[in-house]
Amino acid sequence: MTTPKTIILDFDGVVVESNELKTRSFAQVFARFPEYATEMLHFHTDNISLSRYAKFDYLLNLLGRKHDHALRESLASDFSVKMTEGIVNVPLVAGALNFLETIAARVPIYLASVTPETELNLILGQQKLAQWFRGVYGYPPWTKTDAIRDVLRREKITAADAILIGDSAGDQAAARITGVTFLARNSGLTFEEPTPKCFSNMFEVSQYVERMF
Questions:
Q1: Which pLDDT tens digit goes with each residue over 80-110?
Q2: Strands ordered across the beta sheet of 135-137
Q3: pTM
Q4: Comparing C-alpha atoms, which of 34, 143, 20, 21 is closest to residue 85?
Q5: What span, in angstroms and rounded, lies between the C-alpha atoms of 98 and 27?
Q6: Which CATH number is 6-18+91-210's, of 1.20.58.110, 3.20.20.140, 3.30.1300.10, 3.40.50.1000?
Q7: Please, what sign has the CA dihedral across residues 135, 182, 195, 174?
């Protein structure tokens, strides 16, 4: 590709090593309904890129409480508390800070995640990372594909000028749908065929991206 004009990062598994915390937090929430806890944990791991709300909607269907909005919000609140409490002890992905310090001096960096935007901004503040991002997109209100398209609009660039760095098949699909280049960080999750260019850590990603300038 040509020299990138902007880079969009996923959050979990790209900036912070939070995938294990996320799975543990889901397991604790699902434990409120032991008859479905195992099925729900499998659903989470099989659909890692789905938002928490989509997973709670699946649980509500199992419970026969599809329209129980109060329970949906209770589950989401419980999960959010567990994540925000645990995230302070979660390390950054190796090389993530180096990537931000090095690459942000060259091109704008954005963040796009399925974590709700308010929670995402809170975490970035706690981790002292907010300064590195020109814009932050979370779900709600933004899907990842809509976030990518909005970044392209804001920067007045084409898809060929942007890179998405993610760690899941969902990120890979969002890049394919929007036409941006995809680079993968291997956090242990799987990708679709054809397998994307994959890196063990963000030091390797930084070295690869720097060669594009």
A1: 999 989 988 899 999 999 999 999 999 999 9
A2: 135-137, 109-112, 6-9, 162-166, 181-185, 198-199
A3: 0.92
A4: 21
A5: 32
A6: 3.40.50.1000
A7: positive
